[in-house]
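FAQ: What does the model actually see?

It sees only this:
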Amino acid sequence: MQLTEKLENLNQYQRWVLVLGSAFPAMVVSYIALQHSGDVMVGLLLFYIPIVLSAICLGWIETAILTSLVLLTAVINLLVAGESPWVLAIFITSLSVNVYLWKNWAKTGELSRFQLQKESEELQLNLTDSRIDHEKILLSYGSNQVKIQRYTALNELARSLAMTFKNQEVVVLMIETISKTFMVPGGVYTLLLFDSSVSKSLHAVRYSVDTDMDVRLNRERLNPTDPFNAWVIAQKKPLVINDLANDFRFQEISEDNQVKSLVAAPLMGGHELLGLIRMESSMANSFRQEDARLLSNFCDLGTVALEHVALYYQTIELATTDGLTGLYVQRHYKDRLRDEIFRALEHKLPLSVMMIDVDHFKRYNDTYGHLVGDKVLKLVAQVLRDSVRTVDLVSRYGGEEFSVLLLKTPLDGAVTVAERIRQKVEEQEVVAAGEKTHVTVSIGIAELTPQFRDAETFIDQADHALYQAKADGRNLVRVSPKPEAKHG
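And it is asked to produce this:
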């Protein structure tokens, strides 16, 4: 088996050398025997070796030619040597039989080699298919890893957004996560958060690898004439541009435009457009269709987070403000009042409080109805808001009673503000039952002194002054006398 393998590994030149080299001794022996009247048969039998090697190494045609030459030489040698005819016949017969057997063996070997070659080619094809399948598996694995990473980022973003209660934090967190998730070469990521109309924005964030996070009102990108934003706003569905130069929807855009490929998706709260997110690149074919699907998932998360923030602030507002007037409710007002009293006493700052009551409100309400009464309360609340600073606190204390806390305001300044409020309310006209009516308010004022250590006492002093204003005829401003300091 090893000899056969070695012979098969020889090249064509080496095989010819081997066959002719083995034939040479037989020729020499035959020639010597013939010259010296020796046994020519011994030399002729040696020709079996090159014939066998030829059948193994060279093939049937070469072996047939070599055999013919050996037969011709043998006949000549035997005739010259004077051998008997039967010796010649035996030699020729035996040689013919051997040639026939070697021919069959050669055919069998060729068939085996053919089958072996065929099996080798099939094995090579199988190996190639296996290699291709392996590469596909690697590509699929890499693609799945990317998908896992992206959806892991989506999951982590959902957890982070659940603990976020400010619109700006939602916007920045989303754009940071999106930029790290997609990582498009030269990519620019923009998130626009609209208010009730396209021309008004709460937040606009633009981020790229060569710029810092930029949180601002980006008027240029909020412009409805921007064709990409306008398309998303009008269609309210994702936009994918693989190559801007070949996109028939935006043929009017100048070729100098730096945006060559883009993906954008809207943030939809029901049927209302809350904003949009867009990813753009200066290179064509930077995005795929699955990028648009994933970006839409990010937008869905963003929409839920924004609605969550809105609901949070709505809940806070319902807990701290009055539904009719929009002013602080009494409980929240008192909490703030306690803090301001502590701060004013700690830093020796002036602080004044007003208690305000609508005169004869019950009678007015019974005469014209509760709807007109509510209108009066909202009107008074608006006058209070317009008459004080934004830092001052205004509260609907209960029913038709209001309270105002004037920060860093001494008593004389509080009196000036109170008189302005009283006059403005008196000047207001309220149409009720087809006639113009007026209402007035009575106001009591107290200034903080070290004797007031709690909110209740402070408010009671202003309340006493309010009762005095009512007792003196209403539509008046009265000041609570400062309590005398206690001496030990």
